[in-house]
Amino acid sequence: MDDAKEFICNDGKSALRRELAARRAALTDKPWRSRSACLTAAEHVRGSVMIYASIGSELSTETLIARLSMRSDVELFVPYTSDGEIEICKFISQGRADKLGNLPKECLAFTSDVKLDYCITPLLGFNERGYRIGYGKGCYDKFFRKHTECVKIGLAFDCQRCEFTPQPFDVPLDRCITETDVIYF
């Protein structure tokens, strides 16, 4: 089965995705929780770091992006998703992300051959073994299979912990950072 068909299949996680999205959306103190998780995450990375630009009810990464962009020991990158593939882009400036989480092209410098030390990824849920539930397109799983050298960090709210059985193509995280905890897998 090719990668495109592999990730388009119904993976049986649709109901769980809706439940996790509702849990996340129901949080009333997201700014405090986001800031707490981001400050902790900033302490755990250095070198070349790729971090997603948050959208919707995701844990906001604005604080983390701002903090990391000022550090001399960090080279900051963001993902640009197109046709189910993630490209690594050098972060130039903050902007409003589109519905896929892509910053405007004028905020980025497209690059190639980057060896990432860390990749901070969005998620809807994560389990006790480090597997994540994303949005169902498999973009990050495909990306992680190509970029095995980076430390994979999920950024989530505590309420996003859940139990599920991963699919054979799922790639586990190395750790997950929430507003109250750093969980190593």
Structural commentary:
With 185 residues, this protein is an alpha/beta fold. Helix content is 26%, strand content 23%. It contains five helices and ten strands, in the order αααβαββββββαβββ. The chain has helices spanning 3-8, 14-26, 30-43, 62-69, 139-146, and strands at 47-51, 74-82, 85-91, 108-110, 118-121, 125-126, 132-133, 151-155, 175-177, 182-184. It has an eight-stranded mixed sheet with strand order 4-3-2-1-5-8-9-10. Strand 9 and strand 10 form a beta hairpin. The longest helix has 14 residues, at 30-43. The radius of gyration is 15 Å and the shape is globular. The two termini are 29 Å apart.
Strand order of the largest sheet: 4-3-2-1-5-8-9-10
Structural class designation: alpha/beta
Sheet-strand content, in percent, reads 15-25%
Straight-line distance between termini: 29 Å
Helix content: 25-40%
Spell out the helices and strands N to C.
Answer: HHHEHEEEEEEHEEE
Quick one: biggest sheet? 8 strands, mixed
Q: What's the average pLDDT?
A: 92
Q: What is the tally of helical segments?
A: 5
Which ranges are low-confidence, i.e. pLDDT below 50, for 5 or more consecutive residues? Answer: 1-10
**Overall morphology:** globular
Say how many strands there are: 10
Radius of gyration: 15 Å
